[in-house]
Sequence to fold (426 residues):
Amino acid sequence: MARIVMKFGGTSMAGTERIRRVANIVRKQAAGGNEVAVVVSAMAGETDRLVNFCREANALYDPAEYDVVVASGEQVTSGLLALTLQSLGCKARSWLGWQLPVRTVEAHAKARVDSIDGEALAKSMAEGEIAVIPGFQGVSEDGRITTMGRGGSDTSAVAVAAAVKADRCDIYTDVDGVYTTDPRIVAKARKLKAVTYEEMLELASVGAKVLQTRSVGLAMKEGVRVQVLSSFVGDDAVPADELPGTMIVSEEEMDELVEKGEVERQHVTGIAHDKNEAKIILTRVPDKPGAVAHIFEPLAAASINVDMIIQNVGRDKGETDVTFTVPQADLARAQALLEDKREDIGFNRIITDSQIAKISVVGVGMKSHAGVAATMFKALADRGINIQAITTSEIKVSVMIDEDETELAVRVLHTAYGLDAADEAA
Ligand code: ADP
Ligand code: ASP
Ligand code: MG
Fold:
């Protein structure tokens, strides 16, 4: 017998017919003698719809009230799943974020899980009741509803798994695992049998939205075993314990899998893209100590994350251009803040561009293998794709390119690193 947390995403919960399929998968897992808790997302498209209502109601919406609205999507699906499970003869009960409670800290709309009291939940699971928990939502220190940022149900699931000391956290989605790149962009993408926490964390943070970045960080910290698998299976499908999803593993486990010949070690494990950043160029900034601090301090104070930064070589007149990226959603705010500080910073013009994309290649193999970046630059140059900025980490190389070239760049790189599946034609 195992204790398992199962999470179902938006497409898996889109409508009563799909919810019935989910209920069947859950019922089977419980019927196998396992203790089960289920974390659910809102129906696909619902959260977007609710976000739009907030924008229409008040363009400068209060994030605390936004949370009240957008958290409702998950309340609906958790109740519907509990009802469906009951109709199948299962004992099931929903637990909303404030009831568990899922305590969160920091800002509304991007709250972080602080703690979950797993005791009551574990007790009811041990008594054979299936707990159904709406993902994405929690409660703030002052008792108000919070949400954890888009894609946050993954993090809810991992947090619940950590709280009840689950043996596994199964993330059911609309693809059957983590692939070498988004399988919706590259038909030849290959499913990975296993991926390390570190690589998954990097992949998620640079745009592989199959898992929310925070969920991976939390799983790594709490040692939660996470598996990604598909909910789009027939009624006669094998149970999750035998399904070939993707397991997120430690580096030691990965070494063992490689040794046993179950996984092949590549220099690059995966490729991700992100179209949600925007570029800002400040021209003719004084080339002197403290100048960049003047630019980035106000952005940091406003919780605007700056990602890629390039400072050009200074010109003769002691001036330079500074280019950087921010999330597209924060572009207008960032621009306004910089305009406010024009005198302190001393720049000449602000130029912005949302038509950019960031393409990243990730792999722990890079730590011990030189030439990964060079392969990237050459493959892109051969297709005439211009690189506007570059950043690297120990296991990642990212480039900024024109947004229109995103799909082409991902495909070209997938081939260049030998990641294409052998048996499928593009
Ligand atoms: P859910 O609603 O189940 O949370 P998401 O839409 O958030 O699902 O995440 C699943 C999607 O992530 C897939 O449909 C796929 O298009 C996308 N994706 C991006 N990168 C990858 C990758 N490397 N492997 C698998 N899926 C990926
Ligand atoms: N429903 C939320 C969203 O669409 C949370 C989630 O699905 O993970 O972002
Ligand atoms: Mg998701």
